Amino acid sequence: MEIDKIKGLLKNAEYIASPNCDDRSPESQANLLIIHNISLPPNEFGGPFITQLFTNTLNESEHPFFEEIAHLRVSSHLLIRRDGNIIQYVPFHKRAWHAGVSCFDNQTGCNDFSIGIELEGTDDIPYETIQYEQLATVTDTLLSTYQDMSAERITGHCDVAPERKTDPGPVFDWKKYRQLMIENKQKS
Fold it and tell me: Hey, is 164 helix, strand or coil?
């Protein structure tokens, strides 16, 4: 995998621009990776609804749950679907609106200095092996591209917003993810 550093885009990802982003401040560099999960409607996979949410086109009449969230203005840098396909919504050099009220290492406002990756999934349904493989490969690419980012600065949404969020959930296998990163490094 490779990142177009000028555009801030993952070269092999589908790009669908989200309006829910803005410029990072000049002193804010991406140095934190936050892992999330999302499924729309809840506990259902596939379909256009995640993209619709991130592009402000979600029709609240499509599902009762959408009435609660259609007004939200949120995004993430990447989504890794259950089949391993990757969609990028926000260039990496821009601030995506994924973490909300958050804190990491005594720094608040994690959107300012983080990259957010959504896994299509839930807290309690195991993720697919291809999702872990893609996440590990993307992570390796990010770590080699953004020098301020390190393996120690990878966390879950639950860790930066523990009062509000639980994702990527207890079924997320951190050991498997980190092992795949090690194996990727050994191959390169």
Answer: coil
Is residue 163 annotated as a catalytic residue, yes or no?
no
Burial (CB count <10 Å: 0-12, 13-18, 19+), residue 187: exposed
CA distance 105 to 107: 5
* Spatial strand order in the sheet of 14-15: 14-15, 86-88, 78-80, 114-120, 32-38, 154-156
Domains of the chain: 3-187 (3.40.80.10)
User: How do residues 116-170 score in pLDDT, each as one tens digit?
Assistant: 999 999 999 999 999 999 999 999 999 999 888 999 999 999 999 999 999 999 9
pTM (2 d.p.): 0.96
Q: What pLDDT, on the 0 to 100 scale, is given for residue 185?
A: 84
Give which of 14, 24, 114, 85 is closest to 55, Cα–Cα. 14
Q: What share of the chain is helix, strand, coil (3-state, %, to 5)?
A: 30, 20, 50
Among 118, 120, 152, 163, the one annotated catalytic: 118
Angle at 36 between CA 33 and CA 39, to 5 degrees: 155
Question: How many Å apart are CA 125 and CA 107, to the nearest integer?
Answer: 31
111 near 32, Cβ under 8 Å? no
Tokens of 36: 């999330």
